[in-house]
Write a structure and sequence with these properties.
CATH class: Alpha Beta
Strand content: 25-35%
CATH architecture: Alpha-Beta Complex
CATH superfamily: Peptide deformylase
Bound molecules: nickel (II) ion
Radius of gyration: 15 Å
Order of helices and strands: HEEEEEEEHHEH
Helix content: 10-25%
Number of helices: 4
Strand order of the largest sheet: 1-2-3-6-7
Distance between the termini: 38 Å
Shape: globular
Number of strands: 8
Structural class: alpha+beta
CATH topology: Peptide Deformylase
């Protein structure tokens, strides 16, 4: 296992469409482990493969405070959404920027695990937001493309 460098906005790799994962082998498992460790090290709640320079359709997510709700999504597709939420969002690839972004309140994803088995998972609130944000990375989209406006740090403090 190793930490990977997180690619920053401006690098064209973040703007490309990722290809599906087709081989569920030890190499894939190693990359996923590296992505998980890199996400936790960076104190992120999610990380998509292009953020570590890999143009394959896979993301890792953990929105819990205590690192107990780790999720890997390979070749994920959003199959249902419900409601709407508005709130702040950031990205490890866009340091220092916080944006106000509308997302669905509830999102169901169908994906494969690291062994190629299909499963469905439903998330609400922050997890639903993470699903949308991370899956968008796989199509070269960043939250700054869809944010309503940039939130200044002092605005954020006012809200709390
Ligand atoms: Ni991101």
């Amino acid at each position: 296992m190793a930490l990977r460098n997180i690619v920053k906005e401006g690098d064209s790799v973040l703007r490309k469409k990722c290809r599906p994962v087709v081989k569920f082998d030890d190499r894939l498992a190693g990359i996923l482990d590296d992505m998980r460790d890199t996400m936790y090290q960076a104190q992120g709640v999610g990380l998509a493969a292009p953020q570590v320079g890999i143009l394959r359709r896979m993301v890792v997510i953990d929105c819990s405070m205590d690192k107990t709700e780790y999720i890997e999504l390979i070749n994920p597709e959003i199959i249902a959404t419900e409601g709407e939420q508005e709130g702040t969002e950031g990205c490890l690839s866009v340091p220092g920027v916080v944006g106000w972004v509308k997302r669905p309140m509830k999102v169901t994803v169908r994906a494969q695990d690291r062994f190629g088995e299909f499963f469905e998972v439903t998330g609400e609130e922050l997890l639903a937001r993470a699903f949308c944000h991370e899956l968008a990375h796989l199509d070269g989209e960043l939250f700054i493309d869809v944010m309503e406006y940039e939130v200044e740090p002092e605005d954020e403090e006012d809200e709390e």
